[in-house]
Amino acid sequence: MKRTKNDNNNNTELPHDENNATTAPCGDESFFHGFFNPPHHYMGREFTADEFVFASLTPEYISTLGYRFAGIQPKESIRFLIPRYLPNGNYPIDNSNPALPQARLSTNGGTIYSGKDGFFEFTLDRASSIIEAKFHLTVLTEGKEYPLKGELKLNATGPI
Predict the structure, then answer these.
(1) In whole angstroms, what is the distance from residue 94 CA to residue 99 CA?
(2) Dihedral, CA atoms, 136, 140, 145, 150, nearest 10 degrees?
(3) Which residue ranges in the chain fall short of pLDDT 70?
(4) Measured between alpha carbons, how far is 131 from 70 in angstroms, rounded to an integer?
(5) pLDDT for residue 39
(6) Residues contacting residue 117 through CB under 8 Å, at least 6 positions apart
């Protein structure tokens, strides 16, 4: 099922995956916030997702994606990939190790930046399909390091 965003009565298809995961709006029950200090060159000081995906998009990982929109298109996103059977806990972010959480940021130009030197602490309640997490990492962008700190609480938007 594809979900659409109604923006000025123009329905536009939102990003989704082949496993029937959909996007959902952030609000009181679900949120995805991050803060850069100093402000990120492209993303500014604060990232607050407008919509999110929390689902297993591949057999190996559970994905948490926060999207911030500019009009009807995603402008920026932050994504964490969590190994599917990793127990709840606090783990280093390591994009080169498939057994640990990974972090990626993307800007509206399509450029993807990897997170490093940080941690992802999460609790996944599989019975209620809710994940809560805190994260702290560094994003290297055009030779400059931008620390990012944040938290999320998401309800599943597809199978986990």
Answers:
(1) 9
(2) -20
(3) 1-21, 28, 71-74, 109
(4) 26
(5) 94
(6) 93, 137, 138
Residue where the block lists tokens 């999460």: 122
Q: Give residue 26's identity as a one-letter amino acid code.
A: C
Type of residue at 160: I
Q: Which residues pair with 24 in a beta bridge?
A: 52
* DSSP states of 20-81: S---EE-SSS-EEEEEEEEEETTTEEEEE-SEEEEE--SSSEEEEEEEEEETTEEEEEEEEE
pTM assigned to the model = 0.83
Alpha carbon distances (Å) from 135 to 35, 56, 61, 83: 10, 20, 17, 16
The answer to whether 32 and 64 are in contact (CB under 8 A) is yes
For 53, phi and psi rounded to 5 degrees?
Answer: -130, 135
Peptide bond into 92 cis (omega under 30): no
Nearest Cα residue to 53 out of 78, 90, 72, 70: 78
Asked if residue 12 lies in contact with residue 3, where contact means CB atoms within 8 angstroms, the answer is no
